[in-house]
Amino acid sequence: MKRFEGLAKPSTLAAGSAFLVGGILDQALRLAGEPASELVQSPLYAVRSVALLGGALLLILSLVSIYERHAKQIGPFGFSAATVAGTGTILISGQFWAEAFLYPTLGRVAPDLLDGTERPGSYAFGLLLTAAVFGVGWMLLGSAILRARVYRVLPAVFLLAGGAISLLPGQALGQLVLGVGLVLLSFSPTYRKHEGPQRQGSQVH
């Protein structure tokens, strides 16, 4: 067994669960209709941001574990997809760190920045770049998993859809959908291409 294989299932399940919690709380906060500069002061926003940050950090471990287990099956395309997805996940981890620890302060000292009335070019570009790399990376990885048929179809479809929705910056709906895919993936048996599910010794650990 390779070094990270045993971490694939628990890290994927934990990352998906954290994204589910963070994504649901994000949508609940948006329904409140309050300005972002006020929302970031609430305890619920703190829980939301820490959950998304934890999910992103766990997702890096999950990605390494899944790739290491299925590197041969997903091939060069899968390697490229995993590289882009990993880069995007690192970028979005930085964004979620800022949302957890920096945005509450910005809500007090620079509310126009969070409310969108002022949007410096570098800040807007950073949000767009992060969303683009993360979204495209997970779309590619979902496509690689579908192509190699190493898991059931449904989890890969949710990963692909989560990546597509993540292309829209400034909200966590994409992470919510991605979280569903990760949870499903953690319980999905692994497959060899053109064969049935592998037995206990070959399933994700």
From TrEMBL:
The chain crosses the membrane at residues 12-33, 45-67, 79-103, 123-141, 150-167. It comes from the Bacteria. The keyword Transmembrane applies. Keywords: Membrane, Transmembrane, Transmembrane helix. The keyword Transmembrane helix applies. This is DUF4386 family protein. It comes from Cryobacterium adonitolivorans.
